[in-house]
Amino acid sequence: MTPSEDPAGVEVALVRSAEEMARALEIRRRVFIEEQRVPEAEEIDRHDGDPARVTSAVHVLARRDGRPVGTGRLLLEYARDEHAHIGRVAVLAEERGHGVGRAVMRALEAEARTRGFGGITLGAQLHAIPFYERLGYRARDAIFLDAAIEHRWMDLVFPRSP
Ligand code: COA
User: What is the predicted pLDDT for the residue at 9?
Assistant: First the structure.
């Protein structure tokens, strides 16, 4: 994936180094651990780490005017014709509402398509469901708890190429 830039000055690129991963994790620390009070032991897992070593996920880092402001990750441990999972989508509180979250999602979806996945599945916090619906995702099934936060499963099926 090459870095993509949207009209709001947001550039999203794959995390390719331990230094970039640290910047992505700092955003998640501020959003999930400090703002949402998710325990650190639940927030950081085996999919997070130096991309030279961790192959179960790819992460993206969004910069707005050069500053790291958003992140998200794509879990890859699924069959190619199944859905990949997106998670840990986070935008710094003061940077929300400028299209950063959308740019993060579109970059992760593009990466999943490139890798041959048929779509995306994610567990959405209830407050974020309208955000994902704006991007074409549809909610299904009952509410479940993850890190003591209410979620629902949502899916996006990629249109098949002709
Ligand atoms: N409710 C309704 N609509 C929302 C919304 C919300 N909570 N958040 C964003 N949107 C809409 C925007 O208005 C915009 O609509 P448009 O199509 O009219 O332009 C669209 O979704 C894209 O918004 P964007 O500016 O790209 O989103 P963002 O940068 O503010 O990021 C989150 C959205 C959810 C990633 C951000 O609020 C966040 O990091 N929240 C805390 C972490 C979190 O809960 N992550 C999700 C875990 S499942």
Answer: 86
Q: Is residue 162 included in any domain, yes or no?
A: no
- Probe target for ligand 1 pocket from 131, 132, 146, 153, with the most ligand atoms within 8 Å of CB: 131
Pairwise CA distance, residues 91 & 93, whole Å: 6
Please write the tens of the pLDDT for every residue from 136-153: 999 999 999 998 999 999
- Residue 70: inside a domain: yes
Q: pTM surpassing 0.85?
A: yes
The verdict on the CB of residue 69 being under 6 Å from ligand 1 is no
**Does any ligand 1 atom lie closer than 6 A to the CB of residue 96?**
yes
Helical residues (DSSP H) of 5-156, grouped into ranges: 18-28, 40-43, 100-114, 129-134
Residue 25 maps to a domain:
yes
Q: What is the CATH number of the domain that holds 48?
A: 3.40.630.30
- pLDDT tens by residue, 63-76: 999 999 999 999 99
Ligand 1 mean position to 53 CA, how many Å?
31
Whether the CB-CB separation of 138 and 101 falls below 8 Å is answered with no
Give me the pLDDT at residue 78, please: 80
Containing structural domain, residue 17: 4-157
Q: What is the mean pLDDT of the chain?
A: 93
Cβ distance 3 to 59 under 8 Å? no
